Amino acid sequence: MSSDPSPTAALSPSRPICLFLPSFGDGGVERMMTNIARGIAEQGFTVDFVVGPPDAPYLDTLPASVRLHHLTDSDRRARQRFLHDYVERQRPSIVLTAKNTDDRVALAVKASCPGDTRYFLRPGTNHSERWSARGNALKRWWERRRLRRLYQRADGVVTVSHGVAEDIAAITGLALDRIRVVRNPNITPELEQNARAPLDHPWFAEGQPPVILGVGGLRLQKDFETLIRAFAQLHRRRPCRLLILGQGRQRERLRRLAAELGVADSVDLHGFDPNPYRFLARAGLFVLSSRWEGWANVLAESLALGVPVVSTDCPSGPREILQDGRYGPLVPVGDVDALARAMEETLSRPLAPDVLREAVRDDRLEVSARGYLDAFGLVR
Protein backbone atom coordinates (compact mmCIF):
# COMPACT_ATOMS: atom_id res chain seq x y z
CA MET A 1 0.00 0.00 0.00
CA SER A 2 1.23 3.50 -0.75
CA SER A 3 2.72 5.41 2.14
CA ASP A 4 0.75 8.32 3.51
CA PRO A 5 1.25 11.42 1.36
CA SER A 6 1.40 15.01 2.44
CA PRO A 7 -1.70 15.88 4.51
CA THR A 8 -2.55 18.80 2.21
CA ALA A 9 -5.24 16.88 0.37
CA ALA A 10 -6.57 15.14 3.46
CA LEU A 11 -7.09 18.33 5.42
CA SER A 12 -8.91 20.25 2.67
CA PRO A 13 -12.63 19.60 3.14
CA SER A 14 -13.49 22.07 0.36
CA ARG A 15 -12.21 19.58 -2.20
CA PRO A 16 -14.76 16.93 -3.20
CA ILE A 17 -14.84 13.32 -2.09
CA CYS A 18 -15.55 11.12 -5.10
CA LEU A 19 -17.37 7.80 -4.81
CA PHE A 20 -16.72 5.95 -8.07
CA LEU A 21 -19.27 3.21 -8.80
CA PRO A 22 -20.22 3.24 -12.50
CA SER A 23 -20.87 -0.52 -12.39
CA PHE A 24 -24.08 0.27 -10.50
CA GLY A 25 -26.64 -2.50 -9.93
CA ASP A 26 -29.33 -3.06 -7.31
CA GLY A 27 -27.43 -4.88 -4.57
CA GLY A 28 -26.11 -4.20 -1.12
CA VAL A 29 -22.87 -2.57 -2.34
CA GLU A 30 -24.85 0.05 -4.25
CA ARG A 31 -27.17 0.70 -1.33
CA MET A 32 -24.30 1.09 1.15
CA MET A 33 -22.28 3.36 -1.16
CA THR A 34 -25.38 5.52 -1.61
CA ASN A 35 -25.74 5.72 2.17
CA ILE A 36 -22.04 6.59 2.54
CA ALA A 37 -22.43 9.39 -0.02
CA ARG A 38 -25.44 10.71 1.83
CA GLY A 39 -23.84 10.46 5.26
CA ILE A 40 -20.65 12.24 4.22
CA ALA A 41 -22.65 15.00 2.51
CA GLU A 42 -24.70 15.47 5.67
CA GLN A 43 -21.43 16.03 7.55
CA GLY A 44 -20.89 19.12 5.38
CA PHE A 45 -18.49 17.76 2.74
CA THR A 46 -18.80 18.08 -1.02
CA VAL A 47 -19.57 14.67 -2.54
CA ASP A 48 -19.39 13.63 -6.18
CA PHE A 49 -20.98 10.25 -6.92
CA VAL A 50 -20.15 8.58 -10.24
CA VAL A 51 -22.91 6.07 -10.92
CA GLY A 52 -24.67 4.27 -13.77
CA PRO A 53 -27.96 5.32 -15.43
CA PRO A 54 -30.15 8.05 -13.91
CA ASP A 55 -32.88 5.57 -12.97
CA ALA A 56 -30.53 3.43 -10.87
CA PRO A 57 -32.06 2.36 -7.52
CA TYR A 58 -31.46 4.11 -4.18
CA LEU A 59 -30.34 7.41 -5.73
CA ASP A 60 -33.63 9.09 -4.79
CA THR A 61 -32.52 8.95 -1.13
CA LEU A 62 -29.60 11.30 -1.75
CA PRO A 63 -29.70 14.97 -0.74
CA ALA A 64 -29.55 17.53 -3.54
CA SER A 65 -26.03 18.50 -2.45
CA VAL A 66 -24.59 15.21 -3.76
CA ARG A 67 -23.46 15.83 -7.32
CA LEU A 68 -24.34 12.85 -9.53
CA HIS A 69 -22.27 11.95 -12.59
CA HIS A 70 -23.96 9.36 -14.80
CA LEU A 71 -21.55 7.11 -16.67
CA THR A 72 -23.36 4.39 -18.59
CA ASP A 73 -20.54 3.30 -20.90
CA SER A 74 -19.43 -0.16 -19.77
CA ASP A 75 -16.13 0.01 -21.63
CA ARG A 76 -13.24 0.09 -19.16
CA ARG A 77 -11.21 2.53 -21.25
CA ALA A 78 -14.14 4.95 -21.40
CA ARG A 79 -14.52 4.80 -17.63
CA GLN A 80 -10.81 5.36 -17.16
CA ARG A 81 -10.86 8.40 -19.46
CA PHE A 82 -13.85 9.80 -17.60
CA LEU A 83 -12.24 9.42 -14.18
CA HIS A 84 -8.88 10.75 -15.43
CA ASP A 85 -10.55 13.89 -16.79
CA TYR A 86 -12.63 14.26 -13.63
CA VAL A 87 -9.59 14.02 -11.33
CA GLU A 88 -7.62 16.53 -13.40
CA ARG A 89 -10.55 18.95 -13.43
CA GLN A 90 -11.95 18.62 -9.89
CA ARG A 91 -8.85 17.53 -7.90
CA PRO A 92 -10.82 15.47 -5.36
CA SER A 93 -9.15 14.77 -2.06
CA ILE A 94 -10.41 11.17 -2.07
CA VAL A 95 -11.60 8.61 -4.62
CA LEU A 96 -13.42 5.64 -3.04
CA THR A 97 -14.28 2.48 -4.98
CA ALA A 98 -16.14 -0.65 -3.90
CA LYS A 99 -15.90 -3.22 -6.71
CA ASN A 100 -12.85 -4.88 -8.21
CA THR A 101 -13.62 -3.66 -11.73
CA ASP A 102 -13.85 -0.07 -10.50
CA ASP A 103 -10.80 -0.53 -8.24
CA ARG A 104 -8.67 -1.34 -11.28
CA VAL A 105 -9.95 1.69 -13.18
CA ALA A 106 -9.28 4.03 -10.26
CA LEU A 107 -5.75 2.76 -9.61
CA ALA A 108 -4.91 3.02 -13.31
CA VAL A 109 -5.91 6.69 -13.09
CA LYS A 110 -3.80 7.06 -9.94
CA ALA A 111 -0.76 5.87 -11.90
CA SER A 112 -1.41 8.13 -14.88
CA CYS A 113 -2.66 11.31 -13.23
CA PRO A 114 -0.12 13.08 -10.97
CA GLY A 115 -1.45 14.87 -7.92
CA ASP A 116 -2.26 14.41 -4.25
CA THR A 117 -5.66 12.72 -4.67
CA ARG A 118 -5.73 9.58 -2.52
CA TYR A 119 -7.38 6.35 -3.64
CA PHE A 120 -9.21 4.10 -1.16
CA LEU A 121 -10.64 0.64 -1.78
CA ARG A 122 -13.70 -0.71 0.05
CA PRO A 123 -13.83 -4.53 -0.08
CA GLY A 124 -17.19 -5.81 1.09
CA THR A 125 -16.99 -9.60 0.97
CA ASN A 126 -14.83 -12.50 2.09
CA HIS A 127 -12.87 -13.25 -1.07
CA SER A 128 -11.29 -16.47 0.19
CA GLU A 129 -14.66 -18.07 0.91
CA ARG A 130 -16.11 -16.91 -2.41
CA TRP A 131 -13.15 -18.35 -4.32
CA SER A 132 -13.32 -21.63 -2.41
CA ALA A 133 -16.95 -22.07 -3.45
CA ARG A 134 -15.89 -21.99 -7.10
CA GLY A 135 -13.52 -24.93 -6.72
CA ASN A 136 -11.02 -23.82 -9.38
CA ALA A 137 -7.55 -23.80 -7.80
CA LEU A 138 -5.82 -22.13 -10.75
CA LYS A 139 -8.38 -19.34 -10.85
CA ARG A 140 -8.08 -18.86 -7.09
CA TRP A 141 -4.30 -18.52 -7.44
CA TRP A 142 -4.70 -15.98 -10.23
CA GLU A 143 -7.33 -13.94 -8.39
CA ARG A 144 -5.19 -13.88 -5.24
CA ARG A 145 -2.14 -12.71 -7.20
CA ARG A 146 -4.10 -10.02 -8.99
CA LEU A 147 -5.75 -8.77 -5.79
CA ARG A 148 -2.40 -8.61 -3.99
CA ARG A 149 -0.90 -6.42 -6.72
CA LEU A 150 -3.99 -4.22 -6.80
CA TYR A 151 -4.16 -3.52 -3.08
CA GLN A 152 -0.46 -2.75 -2.81
CA ARG A 153 -1.07 0.28 -5.05
CA ALA A 154 -3.91 1.81 -3.02
CA ASP A 155 -3.50 4.66 -0.53
CA GLY A 156 -5.92 3.10 1.93
CA VAL A 157 -8.40 0.29 2.55
CA VAL A 158 -11.67 0.62 4.47
CA THR A 159 -13.63 -2.56 4.95
CA VAL A 160 -16.90 -3.57 6.51
CA SER A 161 -15.85 -6.09 9.16
CA HIS A 162 -12.83 -7.41 11.01
CA GLY A 163 -13.31 -10.75 9.28
CA VAL A 164 -13.00 -9.16 5.84
CA ALA A 165 -10.02 -7.11 7.05
CA GLU A 166 -8.25 -10.28 8.17
CA ASP A 167 -9.04 -11.94 4.85
CA ILE A 168 -7.66 -8.98 2.86
CA ALA A 169 -4.52 -8.92 5.02
CA ALA A 170 -3.94 -12.64 4.44
CA ILE A 171 -4.44 -12.33 0.68
CA THR A 172 -2.50 -9.13 0.04
CA GLY A 173 0.20 -9.13 2.71
CA LEU A 174 -0.95 -5.74 4.00
CA ALA A 175 -0.46 -5.17 7.71
CA LEU A 176 -3.77 -5.52 9.52
CA ASP A 177 -3.32 -2.15 11.24
CA ARG A 178 -3.25 -0.50 7.79
CA ILE A 179 -6.81 -1.67 7.07
CA ARG A 180 -9.59 0.36 8.67
CA VAL A 181 -12.88 -1.25 9.68
CA VAL A 182 -16.02 0.89 9.50
CA ARG A 183 -19.42 -0.69 9.96
CA ASN A 184 -21.93 -0.33 7.15
CA PRO A 185 -24.40 2.57 7.41
CA ASN A 186 -27.43 0.30 7.56
CA ILE A 187 -29.52 2.29 10.01
CA THR A 188 -30.99 5.33 8.30
CA PRO A 189 -33.79 7.62 9.51
CA GLU A 190 -36.09 6.03 6.89
CA LEU A 191 -35.71 2.48 8.15
CA GLU A 192 -38.55 2.68 10.66
CA GLN A 193 -40.70 4.62 8.20
CA ASN A 194 -40.23 1.97 5.49
CA ALA A 195 -40.95 -0.76 8.04
CA ARG A 196 -44.33 0.82 8.80
CA ALA A 197 -45.44 0.82 5.15
CA PRO A 198 -48.63 -1.16 4.45
CA LEU A 199 -48.30 -4.85 3.62
CA ASP A 200 -51.09 -6.78 1.93
CA HIS A 201 -50.09 -10.41 2.41
CA PRO A 202 -52.43 -12.94 4.03
CA TRP A 203 -49.64 -14.62 6.02
CA PHE A 204 -49.12 -11.46 8.09
CA ALA A 205 -52.75 -11.11 9.15
CA GLU A 206 -53.53 -11.22 12.86
CA GLY A 207 -53.71 -14.71 14.30
CA GLN A 208 -51.63 -16.35 11.58
CA PRO A 209 -48.61 -18.60 12.37
CA PRO A 210 -45.24 -16.84 12.65
CA VAL A 211 -43.46 -16.06 9.39
CA ILE A 212 -39.75 -16.84 9.13
CA LEU A 213 -38.05 -14.50 6.69
CA GLY A 214 -35.01 -14.95 4.46
CA VAL A 215 -33.67 -12.19 2.22
CA GLY A 216 -31.14 -12.30 -0.59
CA GLY A 217 -30.39 -13.41 -4.12
CA LEU A 218 -31.33 -17.01 -4.86
CA ARG A 219 -27.74 -18.17 -5.31
CA LEU A 220 -25.17 -20.48 -3.78
CA GLN A 221 -23.84 -17.93 -1.29
CA LYS A 222 -27.16 -17.54 0.53
CA ASP A 223 -27.71 -21.32 0.88
CA PHE A 224 -31.49 -21.17 0.98
CA GLU A 225 -31.50 -24.92 0.42
CA THR A 226 -30.31 -25.41 4.01
CA LEU A 227 -32.90 -22.91 5.23
CA ILE A 228 -35.75 -24.72 3.46
CA ARG A 229 -34.61 -28.10 4.80
CA ALA A 230 -34.37 -26.70 8.35
CA PHE A 231 -37.78 -25.07 7.96
CA ALA A 232 -39.29 -28.41 6.88
CA GLN A 233 -38.03 -29.98 10.12
CA LEU A 234 -39.42 -27.12 12.20
CA HIS A 235 -42.74 -27.17 10.32
CA ARG A 236 -43.31 -30.76 11.44
CA ARG A 237 -43.08 -29.64 15.08
CA ARG A 238 -45.00 -26.36 15.07
CA PRO A 239 -47.11 -24.17 12.74
CA CYS A 240 -44.97 -21.65 10.85
CA ARG A 241 -44.30 -20.32 7.36
CA LEU A 242 -41.22 -19.35 5.39
CA LEU A 243 -41.06 -16.37 3.04
CA ILE A 244 -37.92 -15.60 1.02
CA LEU A 245 -37.43 -12.21 -0.65
CA GLY A 246 -35.06 -12.33 -3.60
CA GLN A 247 -34.67 -13.55 -7.12
CA GLY A 248 -32.08 -15.62 -8.95
CA ARG A 249 -31.24 -18.72 -10.93
CA GLN A 250 -32.01 -21.16 -8.10
CA ARG A 251 -35.68 -20.25 -7.90
CA GLU A 252 -37.05 -23.37 -9.64
CA ARG A 253 -34.68 -25.71 -7.81
CA LEU A 254 -35.74 -24.26 -4.45
CA ARG A 255 -39.39 -24.48 -5.41
CA ARG A 256 -38.98 -28.16 -6.29
CA LEU A 257 -37.14 -28.79 -3.02
CA ALA A 258 -40.01 -27.30 -1.00
CA ALA A 259 -42.45 -29.56 -2.88
CA GLU A 260 -40.30 -32.66 -2.31
CA LEU A 261 -40.17 -31.89 1.43
CA GLY A 262 -43.94 -31.43 1.60
CA VAL A 263 -43.87 -27.74 2.58
CA ALA A 264 -44.65 -26.07 -0.75
CA ASP A 265 -47.86 -24.51 0.63
CA SER A 266 -45.90 -22.96 3.51
CA VAL A 267 -42.94 -21.61 1.51
CA ASP A 268 -43.30 -18.40 -0.52
CA LEU A 269 -40.43 -17.54 -2.88
CA HIS A 270 -41.77 -14.03 -3.13
CA GLY A 271 -39.19 -12.47 -5.42
CA PHE A 272 -37.53 -9.07 -5.11
CA ASP A 273 -39.32 -6.32 -3.21
CA PRO A 274 -38.03 -2.73 -3.13
CA ASN A 275 -39.13 -2.37 0.49
CA PRO A 276 -38.24 -5.58 2.35
CA TYR A 277 -38.48 -3.80 5.70
CA ARG A 278 -42.30 -3.94 5.81
CA PHE A 279 -41.95 -7.75 5.67
CA LEU A 280 -39.05 -7.78 8.07
CA ALA A 281 -40.77 -5.73 10.76
CA ARG A 282 -43.72 -8.14 10.77
CA ALA A 283 -41.69 -11.36 10.75
CA GLY A 284 -41.49 -13.62 13.75
CA LEU A 285 -37.88 -14.43 12.94
CA PHE A 286 -35.19 -13.50 10.43
CA VAL A 287 -32.73 -16.22 9.39
CA LEU A 288 -29.41 -15.73 7.64
CA SER A 289 -28.32 -19.08 6.17
CA SER A 290 -25.34 -17.82 4.15
CA ARG A 291 -22.12 -19.69 3.44
CA TRP A 292 -20.19 -16.42 3.49
CA GLU A 293 -20.84 -12.68 3.80
CA GLY A 294 -18.98 -9.43 4.12
CA TRP A 295 -21.13 -7.85 6.80
CA ALA A 296 -24.72 -9.23 6.49
CA ASN A 297 -26.68 -6.00 6.15
CA VAL A 298 -30.15 -7.50 6.61
CA LEU A 299 -29.06 -9.20 9.82
CA ALA A 300 -28.14 -5.79 11.26
CA GLU A 301 -31.34 -4.21 9.97
CA SER A 302 -33.41 -6.97 11.57
CA LEU A 303 -31.86 -6.19 14.95
CA ALA A 304 -32.48 -2.48 14.44
CA LEU A 305 -36.18 -3.26 13.95
CA GLY A 306 -36.23 -5.44 17.06
CA VAL A 307 -36.76 -8.68 15.10
CA PRO A 308 -35.25 -11.88 16.57
CA VAL A 309 -32.55 -13.48 14.42
CA VAL A 310 -30.69 -16.72 13.81
CA SER A 311 -27.55 -16.86 11.68
CA THR A 312 -24.94 -19.23 10.39
CA ASP A 313 -21.50 -18.57 11.81
CA CYS A 314 -20.19 -17.80 8.36
CA PRO A 315 -17.24 -15.58 7.50
CA SER A 316 -17.57 -12.66 7.83
CA GLY A 317 -19.84 -10.41 9.84
CA PRO A 318 -22.51 -12.39 11.73
CA ARG A 319 -20.29 -13.24 14.71
CA GLU A 320 -19.29 -9.56 14.99
CA ILE A 321 -22.86 -8.31 14.63
CA LEU A 322 -24.29 -10.81 17.12
CA GLN A 323 -21.31 -10.40 19.48
CA ASP A 324 -20.45 -14.10 19.68
CA GLY A 325 -24.11 -15.12 19.96
CA ARG A 326 -25.20 -12.63 22.61
CA TYR A 327 -27.92 -11.19 20.34
CA GLY A 328 -28.88 -14.35 18.46
CA PRO A 329 -27.77 -17.96 17.92
CA LEU A 330 -24.88 -18.78 15.60
CA VAL A 331 -24.94 -22.22 13.97
CA PRO A 332 -22.44 -24.03 11.72
CA VAL A 333 -22.73 -23.36 8.00
CA GLY A 334 -24.86 -25.99 6.25
CA ASP A 335 -26.01 -27.71 9.47
CA VAL A 336 -29.72 -28.34 8.89
CA ASP A 337 -30.42 -29.86 12.32
CA ALA A 338 -28.67 -27.10 14.25
CA LEU A 339 -30.43 -24.40 12.23
CA ALA A 340 -33.85 -25.99 12.85
CA ARG A 341 -33.18 -26.20 16.60
CA ALA A 342 -32.00 -22.60 16.80
CA MET A 343 -35.06 -21.38 14.89
CA GLU A 344 -37.39 -23.25 17.23
CA GLU A 345 -35.65 -22.03 20.37
CA THR A 346 -35.61 -18.42 19.19
CA LEU A 347 -39.28 -18.44 18.22
CA SER A 348 -40.08 -19.86 21.67
CA ARG A 349 -37.84 -17.52 23.67
CA PRO A 350 -37.05 -14.35 21.68
CA LEU A 351 -34.96 -11.54 23.11
CA ALA A 352 -36.72 -8.26 23.81
CA PRO A 353 -36.68 -5.75 20.91
CA ASP A 354 -34.85 -3.10 22.95
CA VAL A 355 -32.10 -5.59 23.75
CA LEU A 356 -31.71 -6.50 20.07
CA ARG A 357 -31.41 -2.84 19.04
CA GLU A 358 -28.39 -2.42 21.32
CA ALA A 359 -26.30 -4.56 18.95
CA VAL A 360 -26.37 -2.11 16.04
CA ARG A 361 -25.90 1.32 17.57
CA ASP A 362 -22.71 1.82 15.53
CA ASP A 363 -24.51 1.03 12.26
CA ARG A 364 -26.28 4.39 12.25
CA LEU A 365 -25.71 6.54 9.18
CA GLU A 366 -23.96 9.40 10.95
CA VAL A 367 -21.65 7.09 12.95
CA SER A 368 -20.52 5.24 9.81
CA ALA A 369 -20.01 8.48 7.87
CA ARG A 370 -17.75 9.87 10.58
CA GLY A 371 -15.83 6.59 10.52
CA TYR A 372 -15.13 7.01 6.81
CA LEU A 373 -14.08 10.62 7.26
CA ASP A 374 -11.73 9.59 10.05
CA ALA A 375 -10.22 6.87 7.83
CA PHE A 376 -9.72 9.48 5.09
CA GLY A 377 -8.08 11.92 7.52
CA LEU A 378 -10.93 14.39 7.03
CA VAL A 379 -12.49 14.55 10.51
CA ARG A 380 -13.27 18.15 11.45
What does this structure look like?
The protein is globular, with a radius of gyration of 21 Å. Helix 1 (28-42) packs across helix 15. Helix 6 (162-172) links the parallel strand 6 and strand 7 (179-181). It folds into two domains: 17-185 and 364-376, Glycogen Phosphorylase B (Rossmann fold), CATH 3.40.50.2000; 190-361, Glycogen Phosphorylase B (Rossmann fold, 3-Layer(aba) Sandwich), CATH 3.40.50. The chain has a seven-stranded parallel sheet with strand order 3-2-1-4-5-6-7, sandwiched between helices. The chain has helices at residues 28-42, 76-90, 100-112, 127-134, 137-152, 162-172, 190-195, 224-237, 251-260, 277-280, 297-304, 318-321, 336-348, 353-357, 365-376; strands spanning 17-20, 47-51, 67-70, 94-97, 118-121, 156-159, 179-181, 211-215, 241-245, 267-271, 285-288, 309-312, 330-331. It is 41% helix and 14% strand. It has 15 helices and 13 strands. It is α/β, with parallel strands linked by helices. The longest helix is centred in the middle third of the chain and has 16 residues, at 137-152.
Task: Describe the structure concisely.
With 380 residues, the protein is of the alpha/beta class. It has helices spanning 28-42, 76-90, 100-112, 127-134, 137-152, 162-172, 190-195, 224-237, 251-260, 277-280, 297-304, 318-321, 336-348, 353-357, 365-376, and strands at 17-20, 47-51, 67-70, 94-97, 118-121, 156-159, 179-181, 211-215, 241-245, 267-271, 285-288, 309-312, 330-331. Pfam families: Glyco_transf_4, Glycos_transf_1.
